[in-house]
Amino acid sequence: MKRETGGAGAGLRVFVPTMGALHDGHAALIRRARKLATSRGTVVVSLFVNPTQFGPGEDFAKYPRQISRDLEICRSSGADLVFAPSVEEMYGNGPTTVIEETEVAGPLCGRSRPGHFRGVCTVVGKLFHLVAPTHALFGEKDWQQVAVIRRMISDLDFPVRIVTHPTVREKDGLAKSSRNSYLSPEERRVAPGIVKAMRRAVRENRSPEAIVRQAFQEICLIPGARIDYVEAVEADTLQPLKSRKKNGRLAVAVFLGRTRLIDNIPVPTIRSRR
Ligand code: AMP
Predict the structure, then answer these.
(1) Dihedral of the alpha carbons of 210, 214, 215, 219, in degrees to the nearest 10
(2) Mapped to the 3 state alphabet, what secondary structure does 87-142 carry?
(3) Is 26 a catalytic residue?
(4) Contact between residue 66 and residue 39 where contact means Cβ atoms under 8 Å apart
(5) From CA 121, how far away is CA 113, in angstroms rounded?
(6) Residue 32 and residue 132: Cα distance in Å, rounded?
(7) Considering only Cβ atoms within 10 Å of each terminal Cβ, which end of the chain, N or C, has fewer?
(8) Under 8 Å CB-to-CB from 263, ≥6 apart: which residues?
(9) Each residue of 43-90: pLDDT tens digit?
């Protein structure tokens, strides 16, 4: 590893945890990490498809794996070090100790993917111990994941600062995701309709209920779409958003065929009229 000598950025170790199958969204996180670390700090990227965050019947076995392309993206985006452990190296005979956040992890994906955030917290906790970063970068694409990790590091006193990066999208608005490669050409064609419906719903409505209702109705009309959830939540607590007095997020999970896509966008505050 590079020596962490004096000057601005010195001593910083900026970590980008990923499951590999890297795309422009991950590359943006790594470039941001490089900027934060400056040339004096160290940027570490992990590539690990974590089995414990996949439920039975989910896509662990078929999750895309492309290590040489990932290494090239890490290199060209400014990573100094890549950590790509095997499942055996990470878990040995299987862990009997886990980390479980029990509040922020409850709604949204926590409800539809029981045990998912337990797997995420446990692996991120282990990676934080192994990598010992000063900063860790996460994408807003996984809004709930960031909220859960923030609570975990606060509750368990991990000495890490969390930095978030906006969702990187395709030109047509679809959030970049390793899972987009599962989409058939027809599913890929209609997929941007999800975020378009979300944006329109936020633009055209005032109350959180009306936003959710319109987004739900429009997403239902997308051919092949099956809604897992459409919810407006408080941006930080993820509790249901009751008014526009607090910053919110409109968060959705939608199956297109067998592929589950998630996305979220801001629901900004509105000052009440006199
Ligand atoms: P993953 O490999 O899907 O576990 O993602 C690793 C990190 O990249 C997480 O912090 C994600 O939130 C982030 N990420 C994934 N897709 C995007 C995207 N389209 N824009 C920004 N960050 C992303």
Answers:
(1) 160
(2) HHHHHCCCCCCCCCCCCCCCCCHHHHCCCHHHHHHHHHHHHHHHHCCCEEEEEHHH
(3) yes
(4) no
(5) 14
(6) 19
(7) C
(8) 141, 167, 175, 194, 195, 198, 251, 252
(9) 999 999 999 999 999 999 999 999 999 999 999 999 999 999 999 999
Q: Which residues contact 208 (CB under 8 A, 6 or more apart)?
A: 232, 240, 241, 242, 243, 244, 248, 267
pLDDT tier, 5 (very low <50, low <70, confident <90, very high otherwise): low
Partnered with residue 68 across adjacent β-strands are none
- Position 1 scores a pLDDT of 47
The angle, 0 to 180 degrees and rounded to 10, between the axes of the packed helices 116-131 and 143-155 is 60
Amino acid at site 191? A
Residue 186 and residue 135 in contact, taking contact as beta carbons nearer than 8 Å: no
Tokens of 159: 């000495």
Output the residue whose Cα is nearest ligand 1's atom 6: 18
**Ligand 1 pocket check for 168: Cβ under 6 Å:** yes
| Cα(168) to centroid(ligand 1), Å | 9
Residue 4: pLDDT band with limits 50, 70, 90? very low
Tokens for 62? 């078929």
Task: Take atom 13 of ligand 1 and give the residue whose Cα is closest.
Answer: 139
pLDDT of residue 3: 47
Q: What is the CA radius of gyration of the chain?
A: 19
Fill in the amino acid letter for 16. Answer: V
Comparing C-alpha atoms, which of 91, 45, 53 is closest to residue 72?
A: 45
Please give the mean pLDDT across all residues of the chain.
96
Q: Is the pTM of this model over 0.85?
A: yes
